[in-house]
Amino acid sequence: METSTRHQRPERVRPSGRRLTRRLLTAVALLVVLAAALVLAGRFSLLPGLGGLFGEDTRDRSGPAVLKSIQDMHRYEGAVGNFQVVVDLEKDARLLPDAIRGTRTLYVGAGTVGAYVDFGRMRERDITVNEDRTEAVLRLPHAALGSPALDPSRSYAVSKQRGLLDRLGDFFSDNPAGEQAVQKLAVRHIADAARDSGLTARAEENTTAMLEGLLRSLGYRQVTVDYG
């Protein structure tokens, strides 16, 4: 009896789906690590020539500024005060620790406040001149303070502490970690400081000196300026 032996081809062992998924994840992780390494190398100039490859391009696509209105001013700004305030704003949530919900912002606000005399409030009876036009008496309104103007180039946030929920809220917000609250506080504190700084008195002194010099140059020998 003859016996025949057939050579069977070895079957290919196909990798399982789990193994394919693992290899795919490994490849993706390697690509991510490689990309991050290239970005860091270009940022810190570890490899020359990569800085321009991963650099950022800034384009200003803003439209032209449009003039909305013109307002005539009759004010003389006699003095300007420069102020700086450190705002420490903390917001806590009830029954929740600060690590979960709460914010604390340390902000340095710098701005200016102007003090002015409004000549537009004067009437004809507030100006008295003698017949020889050598003496003049002016009665002016008291100086007033303008609105504080916060300088963004000199104002900045020193530190920001946020809880986990606040960080998640900033992630889904259009204006993450907005500084509007601390900016409003900085403006309010600057306005309070300006009221106690004697800025209006300085503005009245400078306005008086300006008017006296102007009228004396026109031939007036005696000039009296009163405020009230």
Shape, please?
elongated
Q: What is the number of beta strands?
A: 8
Give the count of helical stretches.
4
Proportion of beta-strand residues: 25-35%
Output mean pLDDT: 79
Helical content (DSSP H or I, runs of 4+): 25-40%
Question: What gyration radius follows from the Cα positions, in whole Å?
Answer: 36 Å
- Which series of helices and strands comes N to C? HEEEEEEEHHHE
Distance between the termini: 137 Å
**Largest sheet features:** 5 strands, antiparallel
* Low-confidence blocks of residues: 1-5
Structural class: alpha+beta
Q: What this model shows, in words?
A:
Helix content is 31%, strand content 27%. The relative contact order is 0.15. The N terminus is likely disordered. It is of the alpha+beta class and 228 residues long. It is built from four helices and eight strands. The strands form two sheets. Strands 1, 2, 5, 6 and 7 form a five-stranded antiparallel beta sheet that branches. Strands 3-4-8 form a three-stranded mixed beta sheet, covered by helices on one side.
